[in-house]
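Each field is set out underneath.
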Amino acid sequence: MREVVRVRSGFAYDCDVLVIGGGIVGLSTAYAITRAAPGTRVTVLEKEPGPARHQTGRNSGVIHSGIYYRPGSLKARYAVRGAAEMVKFCAEYGIDHAVTGKLIVATEREELPRLHALVQRGRENGIPVRELGPAQITEYEPEVRGLAAIHVGSTGVCDFVGVARQLAEASGADIRYGAQVVQVDRRPALGVAVRTARGDVVRGRVLVNCAGLRCDEVARMTGDEPDMRIVPFRGEYYELARPELVRGLVYPVPDPAFPFLGVHLTRGIDGGVHIGPNAVPALAREGYDWRTVRPRELGATLAWPGSWHIARRHWRYGAGELHRSLSRAAFTEAVRRLLPAVTQEDLVPAPAGVRAQAVLRDGTLVDDFLIKEAPRAVHVLNAPSPAATASLPIGREVARLALTALGEA
């Protein structure tokens, strides 16, 4: 019979705040807690052997400006603030970064109204933008073609894995890797006790759930119904064999109906150019290729009504993304809209990422960061892109909620 982990009255706590998840948001939260309340004991449990192994370490490395996000939303406020703070943090700790600026390029006439709307949104979010015609586009990117574009000067790139490592070190927290959480016992009058796959039990006064791709599972383990589920979307990337074709960052005009930015061109801090991502359903929470299928996880996704609502509502969009996933020729054609000189031979497969997208029961894709409080717990339930950019302000907000809960404990 399986032993049940219990929080026992009078039992010594291992920490004050117990953070589940060693990605950039979890580590930023630990960092913010110890900065705001020195002496607070923080333990971070991460199931992988090191930090930032999933969303943080498998994105395009872009420091987003915040231009895309609805004015007043958490994404807009935290991305704008977080971009400036991320550059400062990288400079302070000697982490590789560069403020490169980026182009958002309209290649079809029907995209022009959306491009102009982005100009207005950028101004509302306090982001300086410059409107460009076709000749001005080639001044920035000689190989890129478009009808019009905007230049966003505050966008950059950095080593987010390096940032996560520095946050872990500077936090002074007890970071435990290889510590997969399998059971949580939360008692509002006492605290939380967590059991790991290795059989260790860690007791804390307050739980912070920054589990990313598994945040909904951890919330339910804690006894809270999050009213959403994570539906994983894989983003596939290619490396450009001729990086000299792209000088900086080039994006298409995004479709506002989706939280994805479309296939874009990113010159990283290493000088290489990544192309992608697309967005296709992943067959596992950590399904980084079509071969990775976990029936239990796939079954849970299919059992969530929101998944079927998405499929019915957006099947045309999904079919196009699936086609580009299975056909390098189709992917190349999508890229050629921005970069006509590219060929299939220029695209070298690169590691994929998986986006932890929160989906409501009615199929709504949650389009803002989502943080919920519960007795003795704070759950970060939607923190995909631009969460890495916004991680410092997100961490401060989660830390504030956790310290408030700690004060009430």
